[in-house]
Specification:
189 residues; mainly beta; eight-stranded antiparallel barrel; 3 helices; 12 strands; 15% helix; disordered N terminus
């Protein structure tokens, strides 16, 4: 359950003004599997981020905003897995080719490969994501075309996963989590 997140998430923009992530129009989701065969989709409700004129991308995930649709499970993930009192955020950073996006006309889409770093729970790791970018009149949508797999051991989250498993009385919780996103960036004025 180390997600993230993600991931992942990253993406794209255009030149001449900073682009800001539209939290209300964006989603970052991950899937957990417990008891070998029970899969559940969860989200993070608070994302922020920007793309600067130089193509640098930064996305912040507020880990306390994890949403599993069950309050006690949200609290347990915050406290036992993410340890939000010590690590309140996950951060995604990367760079994109703004020229490739700015030449697109509104409504056009293209597939790109995005390299990024995910920093969560005090650890950082590099990923490559296959992303579909769709140009809007005043922005851009970046969506994963394939899930990004995040593993608990990469971020020192195995102990937290085991604590969740024990408190819930489950035989297993997967330590590998697929993450997907649909992120909207609007051009700053």
């Amino acid at each position: 359950k180390a997600l993230f997140l993600v991931s992942a998430v990253l993406l794209t923009g255009t030149v001449q003004a900073q682009w800001s992530l539209d939290n209300d129009a964006s989603t970052l989701s991950f899937v957990t599997v417990k008891a070998d065969h029970v899969a559940e989709v969860h989200t993070f409700d608070q994302l922020s981020g920007s793309i600067d004129d130089d193509g640098s991308v930064e996305i912040t995930i507020e880990l306390v905003s994890v949403n599993t649709l069950i309050d006690i499970r949200n609290e347990r993930m915050q406290n036992m897995l993410f340890e939000t009192n010590l690590f309140p955020e996950a951060r995604i950073t990367g760079d994109i080719d703004l020229a490739a996006v700015t030449t697109m006309s509104a409504g056009a889409s293209k597939s790109i490969e995005v390299q990024f770093e995910l920093d969560i729970h005090g650890a950082s790791n590099s990923y490559t994501a296959d992303v579909v970018v769709t140009r809007l009149e005043d922005g851009v949508i970046a969506s994963t075309s394939k899930p990004i797999i995040i593993t608990a051991n990469t971020y020192g989250l195995v102990e937290g996963v085991e604590a969740l498993r024990e408190v819930a009385g489950l035989p297993s919780i997967s330590r590998a989590v697929p993450v997907t996103f649909n992120i909207v960036f609007d051009q700053g004025r």
